[in-house]
Amino acid sequence: MSRQRKKTRRESVERRSPGRPLLTGACLFAVALAGSAWALWLSSGTDARETQSAVRILRSLRVSVLRTIPHETSAYTQGLVWHDSHLYESTGQYGESRLRQIDPRTGVVDQQISISPAFFGEGLALVGDNELFMLTYQAERGMVYDLETFDQIRTFRYRGEGWGLCYDGRRLIMSNGSDTLTFRDPSTFKEIGAVRVTLRGLPLTKLNELECVSDRVYSNVYQDDAIVIIDPSSGRVTHQIDASGLLTPEETRGTDVLNGIAYDPNTETFYITGKDWPKMFEVQFVG
To answer: How far apart are CA 285 and CA 62, in angstroms?
Structure first.
């Protein structure tokens, strides 16, 4: 899909007139679906039981807002990272992409640079204590910046689209809008593995901004007010987080989708925001 401005409005669902024929069709479909499911159970055995087990242990969480911070509505948030009492944000759109350092107490931008108009900025990850890795959307090129000076250190290449990025202490984990997370060597950015992500046994696509926390990956789902927690060893979604309703209807005017997750290990809290949102939130995810 083109990201010159990502669509955020779902296509309208075709309206149907109520009546007996629709009810009968729905019943027939339900019977056929039930029969198919039973046949699949009989034929797959262990696989079906494993899928049901995955469904049983999926947990739901919600967002508890601790604090609200101003956020520039011109910032089309793509990546968000916390480090040493600062937030680092990458933003998108051709001609508007930037790398920014933000004071999380006030939302004030302390430092920023513009990215070449040829590139649409995407995900961001901190490797070690001094290197910020930033993806681009379709240029198949990424940049590494010095954390302190924002000087560009080097570039790297990859195949396909770049969406989200995080670093788990050993490897970079990258999303490309599909149901696949790829693992990459931080020295060469070469792919060293991959995993398919599933939710209730089905592929989960549109994985977007990523945040590595301990042995889990937190991911925005593009065009959805949900954040998922993924076990990268299996690809299974273990938790769903409902992040709807953070902005009032008036505040959503002119904004785009929820995007951006950063974790502060000192307070064990998260920072979340969205593309062109007027606010950022310090939150906890609770049951």
So the answer is: 6
Strand 237-242 and strand 59-70: the pairing is parallel
CA 171 – CA 47 distance, rounded (Å): 30
Q: Supply the DSSP string of 48-86, one letter for each residue.
A: HHHHHHHHHT-EEEEEEEEEEEE--TT--EEEEEEETTE
Cα separations in angstroms, 186 against 119, 127, 195, 265, 278: 21, 8, 18, 22, 33
pTM of the predicted protein model: 0.81
Question: End-to-end alpha-carbon separation of the chain, Å?
Answer: 35
The reported pLDDT for the residue numbered 277 is 97
Cβ(197)–Cβ(181) under 8 Å? yes
SS3 25: helix
Paired tokens of 242: 């409902």
Tens of pLDDT, residues 238-255: 999 999 999 999 999 999
Residue type, 257: V
Give the CB-side neighbour count of residue 167, counting CA atoms within 13 A: 21
Q: Give the pLDDT score at 197.
A: 98
The answer to whether 148 and 139 have CB atoms below 8 angstroms apart is no
pLDDT at 183 over 80: yes
Cα–chain-centroid distance for residue 35? 36
The Cα 232–Cα 236 span in angstroms is: 7
Angle formed by the axes of helices 20-44 and 46-56, nearest 10°: 120
Calpha distance 135→182 (Å, rounded): 14
DSSP 6: -
Among residues 78, 81, 214, the alpha carbon closest in space to that of 147 is found at 81
